[in-house]
Amino acid sequence: MCHGQLLNDALRHARKEHRCDECGGRIYAGREYHAQSVAFDGNIDAVKLCLLCSAASVEFSEAGECYEEGWTREYLRDEIKAGGWRALRSKLRGTINRIREGHRERKQAALGAKETK
Length: 117
Fold this sequence. Notes:
This protein is an alpha+beta fold. The chain contains 3 helices and 5 strands, in the order βββββααα.
């Protein structure tokens, strides 16, 4: 298995400052971030990602790539070389919007399922 089993997947607003587990950047209090729990090779990891790294992760995995240390920086560097910063920024913003929409849809479906019970 390449990416592990996703156990929990949520968009959250930080109540305190966190660090992105991929790029090491700050996730400031009040900012939105992507929180995941992943089971891989017998371990369970809690991961916090800034939205840019989360979007890059989605783009990376949709391309069929497997995780390696430092993949986000390399992926971003390659994308900037291929199409420039503005094209990458536009692509990642679109992916961030897809992530948000997917979470909204899952949340609404869960609320609808609770109401029908």
